[in-house]
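Predict fold of S1 motif domain-containing protein; 277 aa.
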Amino acid sequence: MLEIGKYHKMRIDRETEPGLFLSNEAGDDVLLPNKYVPSEYKIWDELDVYVYLDHEERPVATTLKPYIELNSFGYLRCTTVSKIGAFLDWGLEKELFVPFAQQARPMKVGSWYIVYMYLDEKTNRLAATSKTIKYLSNEGIEVKKYDKVDLLISHITDRGANAIVNSKHKGLIYKEDIFEDIRTGDQLEGWVKKIRPDGKIDIVLQEEGYKSIEPNAQYIYEELTANDGFLPLHDKSDPDDIQSQLGLSKKSFKKAIGTLYRDRKILIKEDGIYTIA
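Predicted 3D structure, encoded as tokens:
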């Protein structure tokens, strides 16, 4: 069964007066209207198409790229407010509907909103909501420190930029970690800096320096910084001491401090390691 609101790879099955009918291996077919038909094609060519409902609520395919997909977030402009709700420009002919009950605050024509697109189970229609919090969770976090992530900036506060992480979690880019002009609605790449015990995710926009060389080196350097530039550990320390203080094996620890030492970031002395000012 074709999923509404998603991309599908389909074959050209036959030509008709209104357009091409496309099919998949499951036997589903859908119309690609003439206005979206490629200038050159052959029967059984494969096309990547987006499937949604047309003005008559029939599944239809398009080669246009919408600004948002099913079960994801986007930043869309309100074009119309009617007696039944608001409508958003999402890059396709038929605009995206937002019921009044799904508006965090009344939408206004010309304003932009962070929204989530869902499939209304009662009507089988695509719709959007600006009540997005319920679609985000920081329980069962699916990212880890140093991971590269996709971000949608949801709003700016005095603390920094709040971001939707991989369309699943809430994250924060602290003001002191922002070195460029960013605004609500920006879609960016970022990296996980830290996952706090309470589930909050700290994000940075630049990959941290030692990650590409030796992930544990960055971790140790952060621990050094947090301890006034000193840790009472060195390459001859007992493995149990290293494990209890840093959670690392002695082999991993020695490799990491070797990286830091070669890059002239630390000094290794008899009583421990020191950062170089």
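Residues 250-262 form the longest helix (13 residues).
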